[in-house]
Amino acid sequence: MRENNEDRPAAPAAESASEPDAGTVALDKDAAPGEVLLKVTGLQKHFPIRKGVLQRQVGSVKAVDGIDFDVRSGETLGVVGESGCGKSTMGRLITRLLEPTAGTVEFEGRDITHLGVRGMRPMRRDVQMIFQDPYSSLNPRHTVGAIVSAPFKLQGVTPEGGVKKEVQRLLEVVGLNPEHYNRYPHEFSGGQRQRIGIARALALKPKLVVADEPVSALDVSIQAQVVNLLDDLQQEMGLTYVIIAHDLSVIRHVSDRIAVMYLGKIVELADRKSLYESPMHPYTNALLSAVPVPDPRRRAAKSERILLRGDVPSPIAPPSGCRFHTRCWKATEICKTAEPPLIPLATGHQVACHHPENAEDQAPQDTVLLTAAVEAAEAAGVEVPETAVPDASKAEATEA
Amino acid sequence: MTAPMHDTTTDVDEPAPVAAEATAESKAKKVEGRSLKQIAWNRLKQDKVALAGGIVVVLLVVVSVFAPVLVSLFGHPPNEGNLDQLEDLTNLPKGALGGISGDHLFGVEPNTGRDVFSRIVYGARISMLVAVLAAAVAVVLGTLFGIIAGYFGGWVDAIISRVMDVLLSFPQLLFIIALVSVLPDDLLGLSGSGVRIATLVLVIGLFGWPYIGRIVRGQTLSLREREYVEAARSLGGGSRHILFRELLPNLVAPITVYTTLMIPTNILTEAALSFLGAGVRPPTASWGGMLRDALSVYEHDPMFMVFPGLAIFLTVLAFNLFGDGLRDALDPKGTR
């Protein structure tokens, strides 16, 4: 059970083991594989909306609104969701590029939620980030050598054999020509630039790498190369990844566990196999049904695509109860009023839904669908049981 | 013998990678040549008008720096009266076109008989000195405050922006005229025209920085959202590193362009102030001062007005053309 891993005693042990010890292999000084490296509890980020001369706060964008998860050493956690669901904000919160509104972020048992720039500096060695846009993540006025050696300069670290030698080694590791040390970013292609970004992130031998859409800006043929490079580096250096993406096939390829986000919440968190084979949350079902099948013969065999109606509601005023109830074809009264907790319904499979699929219904007494849900079901092409349809008169009344 | 033999072979082997590295380095150096600067230079070379402006600017700088040498070669000391060159009755220069001759290339001044060529040359010195130093003051202040306002935003930005608004709406010319009239002749060890020049530099610079400041602030606002700023922060870089190592190199192009466009404005301001009598003090040569002197005699000796006027016109035009060309060359979205 995951709860055992989340227990506090594991954390101090990891911290004591993390004392720098140059002689040992990289994996030895890290938390042992499977131990909790990063633990996030009730994490929230609300961006205030200010208006007027006095900059009065008139509301807030609830980009991340209370999420809990943990990342175990050596694994890859994939985070998926559509644009605007708070994935990137979540990534910037755990790398502490943003200050959380509430909740805690613990790295190796140490609370880093509210550390300042100075306090975070030593932590930066262990937590690194790979950015989405290879065209804006490299300073156009710096040479590749300057970019990749920046981590050493900023952290005051001199690697064995000198900075230049180490930078050239890193360039070689990520598959670039070390002779390109003196070139500028504009002389490289998107894929090469992303490799430079990866070299920079790996320079300090971090334990956790947060990759925010690492391949979404790249050509599909290059995507595979970069994903495989990330995979190889993980095995060589014993890295732990949090990979944020909206591409389900990329996530499926790289992840050990997958978190599905919707409107600032994690709706489902499961092992890869379990998530792809028996998704429980209706939103996950809809997402998975949208994955294109490259083989036309298999396409016919695949079940109908579930079409979701409407747009993602505004994160300024998210829906009450379950945030997905406005678009869900299974939504009932309880979904509107009570927020479903993220609970394990199978081994290694957490889901936040009152009426999950492939699992026992959490609110079996509540069978009457919302009017919107019936429409959603029609649009989605899902059959609705007769008993679940609300009274015709009631439906008309709400429509009128 | 085998052991030493072995040693020598390894010794021979060792330099090889070093040599390979050296060739690799020289290759990389060649590649480095195609930097952004190189691209801009190539574009600038194709812009004939800007290039002509640039050549005039370089000439002006050379003239200002080597003013004493030029004058000793081609003219007379700027404050020496050549009264023998003037008509006895009218005090106007002898000969046609304001007394132009092989000895006095641009003629002589009416009334005083001073050599116009050497006064134009020394006037260029004053104009360039004031304009460039004032631009330097403006660039330092403008870049510093602009980058801070743009990066930190919030109340810092609000205060700096309001100060810039106030300075931009201030009647600069009136302020300087009033200030000059109350300043003592000797100040902080400077005397004579030294005080005036220092005052001009500081005041023109002080009123000039908001122009640069606004541009830098605007650029910083867009640059600070780039991911490389976040990358620097995620590596543990502090504000100072981000401001001066990450952002400043990207601001060099607009700052350079607006500096070259600011210098002619400063030259005009200095000339206007000297014309009004609030600039450089009379015995010291300045283009604006010469124009004022020419005003009383232009009906009889127009050439005395033509030379300083032409000097100001050509200088301002050259700087503006060069600045425009530079902007086109440095703009990555340029069509050329």
UniProtKB/TrEMBL annotation, chain A:
PANTHER family for this protein: D,D-DIPEPTIDE TRANSPORT ATP-BINDING PROTEIN DDPF-RELATED (PTHR43776:SF7), TRANSPORT ATP-BINDING PROTEIN (PTHR43776)
Signal peptide: none
Organism annotation: Streptomyces cavernicola
SMART domains, per database record: AAA (SM00382)
Domain ABC transporter residue range list: 49-288
Entry similarity comment: Belongs to the ABC transporter superfamily.
Record-given protein name: Dipeptide ABC transporter ATP-binding protein
InterPro entries recorded: AAA+_ATPase, ABC_transp_ATP-bind, ABC_transporter-like_ATP-bd, ABC_transporter-like_CS, Oligopep_ABC_C, P-loop_NTPase
Lineage: superkingdom: Bacteria
Annotated region described as Disordered, given as residue ranges: 1-23, 381-400
Pfam families in alphabetical order: ABC_tran, oligo_HPY
Keywords: ATP-binding, Nucleotide-binding, Transport
Presence of keyword Metal-binding: no
Compositionally skewed regions (Low complexity) per UniProt: 10-22, 381-390
GO molecular function, one term: ATP binding
TrEMBL record, chain B:
Key words of the record: Cell membrane, Membrane, Transmembrane, Transmembrane helix, Transport
Lineage: Bacteria, Bacillati, Actinomycetota, Actinomycetes, Kitasatosporales
Record Gene3D superfamilies: MetI-like
Transmembrane segments annotated in the record for this chain: 49-74, 126-152, 164-183, 195-216, 302-322
InterPro entries given in the database record: BP-dependent_transpt_permease, MetI-like, MetI-like_sf, OppC_N
Source organism: Streptomyces cavernicola
Main location (coarse class): membrane
Protein name: ABC transporter permease
Topology with respect to the bilayer: Multi-pass membrane protein
Keyword Transmembrane: yes
The keyword Cell membrane belongs to this UniProt entry's keyword annotation: yes
Compartment(s): Cell membrane
Domain ABC transmembrane type-1: 124-323
UniProt family annotation: Belongs to the binding-protein-dependent transport system permease family.
